[in-house]
Amino acid sequence: MTASAGAPDPRPLTGEPVSLDLLNTRWTQEGELRDLLVSVEGLRVWLAAHGLDGRFRADHVTLERTIEAREALGGLIDGAGGAAAVARVDGVLEHGRVRVRLTAEGPGEEVEFGDPAWGPGWVAVRDYLELLRTAPDRIRACAHEACVLHFFDTSRNGTRRWCSMTLCGNRAKASRHYARSRES
Would you say 41 and 62 are in contact if contact means Cβ atoms under 8 Å apart? Predict the structure, then answer.
């Protein structure tokens, strides 16, 4: 799969916080795993989706670093990595820092990178830390067994189970209905 600059984002779920959206650059479609980050063009699409295309270059080095950050986040969020996953996330965070400043508009922050290629991944990992700080119980993986997508539950009562009701929610309901009708 390839995407080109200016092309629409081919993923089924977009608009999530940048950390979860980085994880969602992998998705399943018709039983096959897809990956937006197989090319620099796909990185360009992802950067544009978050307004990062003006801040960071879409090149092979940035693509590699962004994939490293995605792998670090995935190991942490999916809970399989333990202390090693935490170390990988910390390793991504070591490539940037926040400088707090007082500006004419008031307090401000400026992010600095030793290597700007780490920028998009660093931004995503920092966003995940903010989600953990504010609402860790709202970070979810889709409940459909064949789905690999993640989302931030913004529902009022916090009971969202599916990445999308039209995608996975309906598939699950149809599956249950089919199973009930076969039993009859």
Answer: no
CA distance 121 to 93: 9
**How far is CA 178 from each of CA 19, 30, 131, 163, rounded to the nearest angstrom?**
36, 19, 37, 21
- Contact assessment for residue 142 and residue 134, using Cβ atoms and an 8 Å cutoff: no
Q: Name 132's bridge partners.
A: none
> Could you tell me the sign of the dihedral formed by the alpha carbons of 144, 2, 76, 125, in that order?
negative
pTM of the model: 0.86
Span 22-50, pLDDT tens digits: 999 999 998 899 999 999 999 999 999 99
Residues whose CB is less than 8 angstroms from the CB of residue 172 and which lie 6 or more positions away in sequence, other chains included: 143, 144, 162
* Residues across the chain: 184
Query: Which pLDDT score, from 0 to 100, does residue 168 have?
Result: 87
